[in-house]
Amino acid sequence: MTDQPRRRLVLASQSPARLGLLRQAGLDPEVVVSGFDEDAVTAPTPAELALALAEAKASVVAARPEVAGALVIGCDSVLELDGVAYGKPADPEEATARWKSMRGRAGTLQTGHCVRDTANGRHASGVASTVVRFGEPTDAEIAAYVATGEPLHVAGAFTLDGRSAPFVDGIDGDHGNVIGLSLPLVRRLLAELGVGITELWAPRGK
């Protein structure tokens, strides 16, 4: 009996949170940043925007010769609030205004996912949606949080695995999706391409 070589897995994202989630699930992806201009993409709804961005990032990286034969995962997240898509705030002032508008309310974190198999050109994609119920941090707490710089680097100006966690009362859906990607959705997309996620597990101890 001979073992099939494990497929290369490439994450088309510089997000340490996404990389961390994949590693925690037993995967060992390489990171290749797409450098794609996100401002060049528009879509009718936040969910469609997240999906279009994820597909674009995966496509850009999949076209590179150095990833030939690999499975490429592209993701992008936006926060939907009142039907509007919000990504990373441009500056501290925008982050402060965002938090003041979110507190005491609920929004939906939309994350687009796309998996491309560069060995055969096939791809599968989808969107995971998680409702986020925000707490009511005080103006002083918001100012202190924004001063850390963290909200400038995450979609929606918050994350569940950082300093904003105490300001989120709860979620309805996949918590990993809010952090960066939905592992259950990644598993389903891989399955659509005929790849079992357990086939991609890194050897124990790696």
Could you state the order of secondary-structure elements as H and E? EHEHEEHEEHEHH
Unreliable segments (pLDDT under 50, ≥5 consecutive)?
Answer: none
Number of domains: 1
Rough outline: elongated
Enumerate how many helices there are, as a single number. Answer: 6
| Integer average pLDDT | 95
Structural class: alpha/beta
Q: What percent of residues adopt helix (DSSP H or I)? A: 25-40%
CA distance, first residue to last residue: 23 Å
Regarding CATH, which class? Alpha Beta
Rg calculated over all Cα atoms: 18 Å
Assigned CATH architecture: Alpha-Beta Complex
Instruction: Give a quick account of the main beta sheet: strands, pairing sense, barrel closure.
Output: 7 strands, mixed
Task: Describe the overall structure.
With 206 residues, the chain is α/β, with parallel strands linked by helices. The protein has helices at residues 16-24, 46-62, 92-102, 139-147, 175-179, 183-192; strands at 9-11, 30-31, 71-81, 84-86, 106-117, 122-134, 168-172. The chain has one domain: Maf protein. It contains 6 helices and 7 strands; from the N terminus they run E-H-E-H-E-E-H-E-E-H-E-H-H. Strands 1, 2, 3, 4, 5, 6 and 7 form a 7-stranded mixed sheet that branches. Helix 3 runs antiparallel to helix 4 (139-147). The protein is elongated, with a radius of gyration of 18 Å. The mean pLDDT is 95. The active site is at 76 (proton acceptor). Its EC number is 3.6.1.9.
Features:
206 residues, alpha/beta, Maf protein, seven-stranded mixed β-sheet, Nucleoside triphosphate pyrophosphatase, hydrolase, cytoplasm, ITPase-like_fam, nucleotide metabolism
